Amino acid sequence: MIIDKKGSEQKILEAVVIRFVGDSGDGMQLTGTQFSDTSAMFGNDVATFPNYPAEIRAPQGSLYGVSGFQVHIGSVEITTPGDNVDLLVAMNPAGLKTNLHALKPGHTIIVDTDAFNKKNLQKAQYLSNPLEDGSLENYRVIEVTMTSLTKETLKDIKGLENKSITRSKNMFALGMVYWMYNRSKEYTIDFFNKKFKSKPEIIEANTKVLNAGYFFAETLELIPNAYTIAPAKMNPGTYRIIRGNTATAWGFLAAAEKSNLELFLGSYPITPASDILHELAKHKHFGVKTLQAEDEIAGITSAIGASFAGNLAITTTSGPGLALKGEALGLALMTELPLVVVNVQRGGPSTGLPTKTEQSDLLQAMYGRNGESPIIVIAASTPSNCFDFAYQAAKLTLEHMTPVLLLSDGYIANGSAPWKIRTVSDMPKIKSNITHEIPENWHPYHRDSETLARNWAIPGTKGLEHRIGGLEKDSSTGNVSYVPENHEYMTKIRAEKIKRVQNYIPDLKIEFANAGDLLVIGWGGTYGSLYSAVKLLQEEGNTGIGFAHFNYINPLPKNTENILSKFKKIIVCELNNGQFVKILKANFQNFNITQFNKIQGLPFGSKELVQKFKQFI
Hints:
single chain, 6-stranded mixed sheet, disordered N terminus, alpha/beta, 23 strands
């Protein structure tokens, strides 16, 4: 305990999980983001998980129209947005009903009682009012007439519509939570001043409601003590909170700067990848060129054209869009041009679950093209390392002259975490294969002896005139060739080029036990949940469990077989029906490999993983 300025005790917590839920129009994403950013500014480690419906505006008060934002903050290492919730802020009955299961017994619910009317209770399929029927007796319920108090706070402000006044109630809730967890309001007030600088009445309204919620919480007997969460111990440096999609965009900016190439993005908007396009479109001052194409095919083919002209070229999409890009991706492979395709995975098939997360595009990334068409496939695993793997994708495509498919997913793309700011000078060197001088006996498929990457001849360079295209080319002249032996040779050398990438990627690392009874394997965005689960088991004394996480999928790291051989049992955990486990079994037939899968549009919870792993220990 510590004593605050008023002489009251404050309880010190290591970490807390808070979830804000309400209608899509209740501003839960903004509320959660402001709390996350404020906590990050304070120095806490942070992880977030936005969860919202696919509809632009789902029916108000409906169960499937609930929008939520979960944040996990702490003075200790935070690797996931958390499992069970310590505080649930429910702005309506539907939010309460769909999220109560996640709240720890005995913990706190804040509800806007104004929303618990007969109409909203019916929409949420409640037969009786949960605030009155005793069904919440295992929780500490703080009932607040939030909408009414917001209207009372703003009754003297002129020029505001009733709709705008009601929308401000999310700031009342945020103010209450700021007081409960000893957060400063100043960061959010500064946000108001910047975002609404041309609308002073909006600044005044939001500031007044935020303060009203803060001071209202101070008066409540149900919250006798504010909680304190100390800053986390982190490596020295300058940090900022960053979302995965933003980090991806910035990684490409850094790669373009390091390689001294202009960056081109050809893309068609699609959830949840569109924010990469939005972010890069802001940076024309860095020479970035963005094209919002009329469809997915135009997006990738424009990027191929930009690559042919000497740009660092990328295209972004999600699963349905990747299916449409398949033919053109084969063209980029056939022409052996550098191209990065970012696939931010979502629930499928078809339109599926556009705003939910999944890892079900892995086999599509590996094999979803006609012919023998291997490409490099890598995957980011946290919101912050989306920066590193975007940079690495650019480095690999430029140095090996072949497309790279970078896999992200809705969980890490929309989630946020602290990111240590880096300078371009800190980043690994990138060497492009652009031919500046005419070599003796030059031809377009002259290859580097180690990487097998062909040279990159920019159109218009005198003496480097050449043909490339989708038809098979002669290995020497670059002319169209139908010679059977030539096609077989070119097919095999393109595959060998991918295989040799093993020499340029890091070995697979193992965490916790180096050998033992059970090896937990994951890939991509499941890292935080798997790491947390294995760490919990280690702390309980299960020292024979190790953890290996794959960011490099094709080719696999060179030491993969050696790592697998050190454990009696292996379990591969994926948010799909078992795709990476198929790849491992195809490559390594002599190991006892099993699988654990979840296909619910949600990330793994650490506790469900712990229960599963205990069955194998």
